[in-house]
Each structure stands twice: as C-alpha cells, then as structure tokens.
Amino acid sequence: MNPIFKAWVRVFTALFLVTIPFRIYADDLADEADLHFQIGAERYRARDFRGALEHFLLSNRLVANRNVVFNIARTHEQLRQYSHAFRYYQQAREGETNPEEIAKIDAAIDKILPQVAVLHVITDPPGATVYVERKDLGPRGTTPRMLAYEPGDHTLIVELPGYRSQILESVHLEVGHPKTVHLALEKIVGTIVIGGIPASAEVRTDDPTAPASCQGPCRLEVSAGRHTLYINDPAHESWMREIDVVEGKFVSLRPTLTPQLGSLVVRADEREAIIEIDGKPVGFTPAVIDVGVGLRTVRVSKKGFVPVERTVQIRLKERVRLQVELEAVEEVIAASRRAEAVEDAPGSVTLVSHRELRAMGYPTIAEAIRGVRGVYVGDDRSYQGVGIRGLFMPGSYGNRVLVLLDGHPMNDNWIGSSYVGYDARTDIEDIDRLEVIRGPGSVLYGTNAFSGVINMVSRARQLPSSGSVGMSSSGSGVARARARATLRLGDDAGFWMSVAGARSEGRDFYFQEYDQPNDVPATDGVVRGLDGFQSGTMTGQAWWGPITWLGFVHSREKDLPTGAYDTIFADPRARQKDTRGMTELRVEPSISDDVHVLLRAHLDMYRFEGRYPYEEVNGGLGVDRYQGTWAGGEGRLILSPWSPLSVTLGGEGQRHFRVHQTAERNDGTHMDRSDPYSVAAGYGSVDVLPMTELRISAGSRFDWYSTFGTSVNPRFAVIVKPYEAGNLKLFAGKAFRAPSIYELYYNDGGRTQVESPDLRPETIYSPELQFTHRITESWSALVTGYANYVQDLIAVQGDATAASPAHYENSPSAILTLGAEASVRREWRHGWMLELSYAYQHSEYRQPSATSVPMRHVPNVPEQMGSIRTSAPIVQGALHAMTRLSVEGPRYDRYDRPGEPEQRRTEGAAIWDVVLSGQEQELGLRYAIGIYNVFDSRHRVPVSREFRQRSILQNGRTLLLSSTVDF
Predict the structure, then answer these.
(1) How many domains are contained in the chain?
(2) Is 611 helix (H, G, I), strand (E, B) or coil?
(3) CA nearest to 761, candidates 835, 703, 675, 834
(4) DSSP 149-185
(5) Residue 268 sits in which domain range?
(6) Distance of CA 269 to CAs 50, 285, 341, Å?
(7) Tell me: the pLDDT tens digits for 203-230?
(8) CB contact at 8 A, 952 and 396
(9) Given this model, what pLDDT does residue 20 score?
(10) Residue 639's beta-bridge partner residues?
(11) How far, in Å, are 387, 555, 708, 781, 837 from residue 370 at the CA level?
C-alpha cells in the first residue's frame, strides 16, 4: 500500500475516534435535560412547585433553554418568590424575537410588578455590570437594567472597565414604589498627545469605523488601559498602534506617516524656475517630483517673471503633468514711488535686471549702466560720474543725477554728488536690479533728481535662510571679498546683512601735461603705483510685517594720481576719503484696500577728508574736511476712493544740523564754518484711468530751502494704448537742483576761491514722446524723442587767483538738448537676450540776448551713442555667455567760453565686454570670468578746471574674476 495513503487513513481514523465520544456526550446531556424538564412539568401539574423548580433549574443548567427559563419564572411566581420570578422573566425576554412570546412575558411581568420592589439602574455611559449585595453572587446584567428584590435595604455595585467602580449601600426598596438610580461613572483617564501629523489627518480610538476623535495635531483624553489608535489621512497610508495609557499620565506620539505618492511633472518655458508645493521649495524646472496625494498648490517663479500658481489633484501612483508659461515682467518703483509695470510708468525707464547683473558680473553701478540708452559715464580718477541725456558738466560729479537705495537718496549734502563707482559701494551683489529713469524727477524726490534717477533695489525678502562668501578681482588689480547672511524668522519677518571690502594697489600713468623736464622740480609725466584705494561696505535690512529697517555704511580712501587742484604731481600724500552712512525706519501699515500709508524716519551722515600737498611757499599740505549729519521724516497717504482714481498726498522735512567745512594749510586755517539748514516739502499727485487704454497722471511738489527759498515742480503724463501691442507715452515735467553747500560757501579766504551765497537753483523743463510696439511676447521696439531746457546752470567763474578768485554764478546762457532714442529688445527667455539701442543728443548753449557773445559747445556730451547687449546659454544652467558692445561719439572739453583756449574733442570709443558665468548647484558655487574692453580702447573723457589735463584716459583692457559660494 502506498505510504502516503496509509498516513491519511491513520489521520481520519484518529479524528473519527476523537469525535465520537463528544457527539455521544452531547446527546446524553440533551436527553438528561429533557428528562428533568418532563419531571419538572409533572411536579408543576401536581402543584409540587418546589420539586418542579428543582428539576427546571437542573434542566436549564444542563442545556440552557428560553422556554425552561420561562417555566422557572412561573414556578417562582407560584411559590410567591416574586423577585426571583421577575428576574427569570427578564432573562426569558432577552433575545426573544417572537412578538407573541414577548407579549406573553410582558403580561407576566406586569402581573407581578405590584408584588415586588423594583430597582431601575441607569448609568452614563451605559453597559456597566450590575451586582447586588456581593460580587460573588454573580452579575445581575448590564445597564440600563430593571431589577426586582425583596423590600428592604440592598447594596448596589456597578462596574465598567475604564471607569471607577461605584458602591451604593442601603438602597431602600419598597413594594409598589419603583426606584430609579442614575449613576454618572467617573472615567479613569490618561492623555495621548499626538503631534507631527497633517491638519487633515483624522484620529480614532479602538474602532477604525467610529467618528474621528480629533483631527490634526491634537490631545486625547482616554480611559486608562490599552487602546488601539488609528490615524487616517488622505495623502498618507493608514497608521495603527496599540497604546498603554496610565491614569493621570501623558503619552506623547509623533507618528511617522508614510505618504501615499503620486508624481508631478513640472515644465516651464524657462529653465531653473523655482517650484514650490504648498509653500515649500522642492526643486527647479524641469522636474519630476514625488508628491503626496491630495489637492496641492504649485507655484512656479523666477526673477523677472510673474509667478504662476496652480492647484492640482495628485492621485495615488498616477503622474500629473503641469506646463506653465512664465510671463516676463518689468516692474519699476522709482518712477512713481510705488511698484508698477514699466509700460504704465510716467517716465522713460530702463531696468538692468538681476540676470544681467549676475551674467556680466558688473563690479560697480557705473559699469552696469554703461550702454543704457541716453546714459554715459566718466572717471577723472577722483570720482566716477554719470550723465543722462546731454548734461554731465565736468567736475559736477553727477550731482544732477539722484542715486537711491530702495528709494532712499544716497547723494551727499555737501556737493550733492551721486556715487556710482567704488566710492558708492564695494560691490553690487546685494542689488537685485537697477532702475534708470531718464528725465526730471523732482516732483517725487526734490533736489538732484534733475536729469534722471538711478534706484538700487535690494534683493527680495523671499530668499530663504542662507549664507554666502565670495572673492573677486576686477578693474586695475582691484581685489574684493564679501560675506552675507540671511535669516528668515517667518513668512513676513527676517533679516540680512552683508560686509564687503576691496583694495587696489594702484597703477602707473603717463600724463603728457606733466612731462616738463625744465620745471623745478622737473617731472617726466609718469605716476607710479598711485590711483590705489581701499574701501569697506556694510549693509543690512530687517523686516517684520509692515516695518522695515535699512542700514548702510561705506567708506573709501583713494590716491589722487592726476595732480588735480594744482597739487604737487605724483605726491602720494594726495588722497581723498569719503564715508557715508544712513539708517532708515519705514512703516507701511495696511489700512485697507483703498487707503495706504507710508511713514519713514532717517538719519544720514557724510564725512570727507581731502589731503592736497602743495609747495611750502604755497601753504604746504592742505587739508579739507567736511562733516554733514542730517535727519528727516516723511509721511505719505495714498487714497483710492474708487478703482479708476488714485490720489497721493505727502510731505517731508529734513534738518541738516551738522554742516561743517574746514580748509587748512600749513600756513593757517582759511575756512572754518558751519552752515546748518532746513528743508521742507509737500507734494501731491492724481492718477486717473478713465478707460483701460488711457491713464492720466498729474502732480506737483513744493520745496522750501532755508538757503535760497522755494521751488515748485510739476509733472504731467498721458499714457495711451492705441492698440493691444502699442503703448504711447507723453509726459512733461520740471525739476530743480538746489545750490550745494560747497557751491554756496566753500572758500579759502580769497586766495583762490570765494563763497557764492546768492546762487539760485537750477531748473530744467523736459517734454518727451515715447512709443513702444510689442512685436511678439518676447520682442519689442521703442522710439522716443525729447527736449531738455536748462536754466540758471551753476558754473564756475574766475581764474582761481587772488586777483580773480573762483566763484559760482548762475549762467545767463541756457542749455537746450534735443534728442531721440530707439531700441529693439528681446526679453530674457531660456537664457537668451538681445538689445540694440541708439541715442542721439544734441546740446547747445542758447544766447541770453542777440548781442551777447555766444558760448561754444556744451562740454562732455557725446552726440551719438549706441550699444548691443546679448546673452546666450552655452551649457544650460552651468555656463552662460554675455557680451556688451557700447559705442559713443566724441565729447567736447571744458573750454566752452569765448576767449579761452581752443575747445577740442576727444575721440569716440567702442568698448566690447565679454563675460562667461555659471553655477554649480551641487556645490552652491557661482562664478564669472570675463574681459572688459576687449579692444583695449584708449578712450578719454573731459575733466574740470581743477585739472591741468583736458581729458583723462579711461581704463583699458581689464580682467574680471569672480566666485561666490552659497550655503
């Protein structure tokens, strides 16, 4: 026989033998129970109720039977043992489903109720076990429960797991008077603290199908003992765990929920755009991202583009695709002192974007704005300066251009100089973009906003907590280092600060004007190792809701290699040191959608020290010092009573309480004077949008100076969109420049210069018509024409001798500039950018009368300028190339008056810059390497009368190296 078959036979045989006795035993119990029931029935009919009760009880004990229980109750009733009868009737009724049987039992209960003492026990919560007299007598059921006992006092015991037991002694029962006992059971609890779960997660205890006990991070009070905790969240796998809870104790849990994942594919028409899901950065486009299931908010953003926000439904193990198109945005603040699109701004605006600043690695503001249409720069080796649209008088140091930092004026209060080189700041790494606004801006900013405004906009608040360190080399051996830290303290609070330093050992120059072998002492025109400088900058910003603090301090000390101010040529003692600082507190509370308020207070300072070596016979070493400190405040209210109308009202005041200048030489002090002064202003503007295609803006500002009086400066603009892709702007305005403290009061006791206290402010009137056509979403073309008319230009008169000392006068000859500009631009897309621009500006003096001797050509104005800027990716995200070619025509030198030496022109210049830049995201490394002035153009710019030279040579070919590590 097969061994396997034998094994199965043995198994079945064993099972059969084991089962037979149980079956026989069960049948025997049923027979015996039936026998006792028959005997009990016979005894009952014979009215032997005690004997019947004995056999009924025995039958029910052998095999429980509802009919037998009913007979036990009837027997107790016959024996007048009504309480026992009541109890057994209740047992018989439990579980009965036959309506006829239920009615029969209820009738039997009703019959004996008058004969028993009834106790009705109710508990909160129900389900408690009831004992009477003693627990060892067994339970009497669960609440709610109706019990029947003999009259008298009884002890009631109620127990429910997780609750404190209750014992009621001397519960008095009387026949015919039912008694109800209500018991509120006290829960024995501990606390479960659940954290680290999503707000959408539901928590249940013991029963996974029960209603949720709580949601999200929460606390639960549960009965002491063991419980099963269930957590369910739509985006995560279910979580379960058994928890032992001790009375009065806390159990802390931070469950790790396993996400239920789907995938999201995000693509944009721009690479390296930041992807945020539910407010958290998760990567850069393009990307495939595992995302928890559920409804998710996806935000795609990149500098220079309008952020795109979408809501997507992520499903388990499914892939969702999201394609977004980022719309390029050009937003300007300085044109109206509020954020608005460039096409809506009442002015001629150019933005130097964050992308261009980083791609070209511009070391200074001056380098960044060279090639911007209508803008040109120059460096006389003392300071770099900037001119806009035909107005850049030699020696003015850009005091007709206002430079702002986040809207705060940064020009000093001595000469009014704008600072655009290393004298402005060590680098521009903290700057997000530059806003260049051509034309008069006094209606917004007062003095110095004469021919234009340059606003430096700091990096955005949205940057995460991070740090960076960097080193670079640029220009003529300039070495720089910087560090920055950013700390985010919440969605709308944070702080950043940066420090930077730079140093240059200088370079050699040859100046033909000082190649004088016959002079005593003889000079060969060569300067060796001068033009060096050292500088340091600290900048910081903090914000908390509507409150913003801004702080800045910068200092630069520089050698003067040019022999300016008739100092001893090539003397290393010739140096100038400028230190500027400011702190501003700004509050912009959100009153309502229709009311906006700005309040700001500021404290500024400027310190200057110039050392000028002269021969002892001429006084020896001269030292000029200036100390300026001023404070001010401003309040502005913007009202929008209805959407087409916006009204702006504001006022500001300044007190220049420290205005102290001294001029010393070895032979004595020639000037030591303080001239504190005050400024007050009020302004208002109205913007109306009668239709979507038309915007009208009009405003005016009233300024009062304690030094000269008042000036009123209006501005008017009309912006029309004649068709969807067209934008036409017509605007006109007036601006002023207050005579500076230097121009009013500087003197050296009459030796070479005297004060000029009767100066009037300069004024400029400027209309402009500008038209822009958007060719495609990325391409646009622009053409503009303008006129500038300048009156009361402050100019130096005299020969700077004791017989004819230098002084300042308001020139009787006005300057008229007529100009036109054009550009074609492809916006930044996928790393590509192209802009071609051309500017024509013709400036000339206007004779005050037909009989006056005409002035010559306006100095330092290139009549034609052009530039090409283009950018292209080489290796996406890793290597990028950008180049700039700027071309400008000749400039006339300073000899613009009749009877002076012949007025000459410099040669034109073509400057080509090429920079390669990129980043390594894994290392957090950004780098740039480039060459400025690849052609090594030896171009020159005219300089002022303080120089023996007519013009100064500008930088030739220089190398840029830069690296920054972000962490």
Answers:
(1) 4
(2) strand
(3) 703
(4) E-SEEEEEEEE-TTB--EEEEEEEEBTTB-EEEEEEP
(5) 261-328
(6) 99, 9, 22
(7) 999 888 889 989 888 998 888 888 899 9
(8) no
(9) 44
(10) 595, 647
(11) 10, 24, 35, 20, 12
Cβ-based burial of 751 (10 A; exposed 0-12, middle 13-18, buried ≥19): middle
Q: Among 50, 82, 114, which residue terminates a domain?
A: 114
pLDDT at 16 over 50: no
Is the peptide bond preceding residue 125 cis, with omega within 30 degrees of 0?
Answer: yes
Element (H, E) at 718: strand 709-720
What torsion, rounded to 10 degrees, do the Cα atoms 422, 424, 426, 432 define?
Answer: -120
Residue recorded with tokens 């028409």: 269
Provide the whole-model pTM. 0.75
What digits encode the pLDDT tens for the residues 918-928? 988 778 899 99
Q: What is the pLDDT of residues 880-907, one digit of tens each?
A: 999 999 999 999 999 999 989 999 999 9
Question: Using CA of residue 443, residue 448, residue 454, residue 456, what is the dihedral sign?
Answer: negative
Q: Which two tokens stand for residue 137?
A: 């007598």
3-state secondary structure of 79: coil
Q: In 301-404, which residue ranges form alpha helices assigned H by DSSP?
A: 354-360, 365-369
Q: Are residues 754 and 870 in the same domain?
A: yes
Distance spanning both ends of the chain, measured CA to CA: 82
List the beta bridge partners of residue 123.
183
Closest CA to 163 of 135, 122, 125, 121: 125
Q: Could you list the beta-strand ranges (E) of 761-813.
A: 762-774, 779-791, 794-797, 807-810
- DSSP tag of 235: T
Instruction: State the Cα–Cα distance between residues 277 and 296, nearest whole angstrom.
Output: 7
Q: What is the pLDDT of residues 72-86, one digit of tens each?
A: 878 888 888 887 888
Phi and psi, residue 223, nearest 5°:
-65, 150
The token duo for 713 is 């400066």
Furthest C-alpha separation in the chain: 163
Report yes or no on 309 lying in a domain: yes
Question: Both 232 and 268 in a single domain?
Answer: no
d(CA 876, CA 284): 13
Q: Are the CB atoms for 792 and 762 separated by under 8 Å?
A: yes
Comparing CA positions, the residue from 649, 263, 605, 207 lying closest to residue 412 is 605
- Rounded Cα distance between 555 and 141, Å, is 92
Supply the CATH number for residue 194's domain. Answer: 2.60.40
Burial class (CB in 10 A: 0-12, 13-18, 19+), 623: middle
Q: Give the phi and the psi of residue 442 in degrees, each rounded to 5.
A: -65, -25
| 499 and 514 both lie in a single domain | yes
